[in-house]
Amino acid sequence: MSVSRAQDLTKFSSPEEGFAELSADLVEAAIAHCQLVIVCKFIEKLQQDIPGEGVKHHLETLCGIYSLSLVHKHQGEFLATGYLTPKQAALANDQLRALYTKIRPNAIALVNAFNYTDHYLSPILGHYDGNVYPKLSEEAWKDPLNETVVPDRITST
C-alpha cells in the first residue's frame, strides 16, 4: 500500500494537494509501519535469553497473538493486495484461535503480572474483592437503556 500511495502522490499537480488527498491512506501506512516495527522488535527480543521459567514460552505465544491479530484485523487489505491467499488467511485465523486457547489458562496471571489496578482496567468481572455480581449489576444500571424499566421506544399494543 505504501508504495502505491507514494506513486499516487506523483499524479497530483503539487505535493501538498497529493498529501491532502491521500492523507488518510498515508496515516494508515504510518500505523502499519509502526506495527511492523513492534512485531520485528518483539521477535528480535525473543531471540535473546529471557530469564524465568516459562516466560519466554508465554512471550512467544503473546507475540504470535499480537502478530496474527494484526493479520486478522487487516485481512481484507492483505487479501485485496494479494499478499495473502484466502487459504493463508484462513490458516492464520485458525492459528490465532489456537493461540487464544493456549494462552487462556494463563490470561489472568499474565494480566496480573503487569500489576495494573482495577481502577486502570475497569473490569466488571474479576474484581480483587470478589464482589462480581454486585459490581456487574451496578455497571448494568449505568447503561442508558436501563434508566427506565421499559425503554421509551418499546410500547405495548
Description:
- With 157 residues, the chain is mainly alpha-helical.
- The chain has helices at 2-9, 15-46, 55-73, 75-80, 86-103, 107-113, 118-121, 132-142.
- The model has no long low-confidence stretch (mean pLDDT 85).
Can I get a quick summary?
This protein is mainly α and about 160 residues long.
Task: Write out key terms for the chains shown.
mainly alpha, single chain
Mean pLDDT: 85
Number of contiguous helices:
8
Largest sheet: none
Secondary-structure element order, N to C = HHHHHHHH
The total of beta strands comes to 0
For the termini, the CA-CA separation is: 55 Å
Helix content: 55-70%
Specify the structural class.
Answer: mainly alpha
| Form type | extended
Which residues form runs of ≥5 with pLDDT under 50? none
How much of the sequence is in beta strands?
Answer: under 5%
Q: Which value, in Å, is the CA radius of gyration?
A: 23 Å
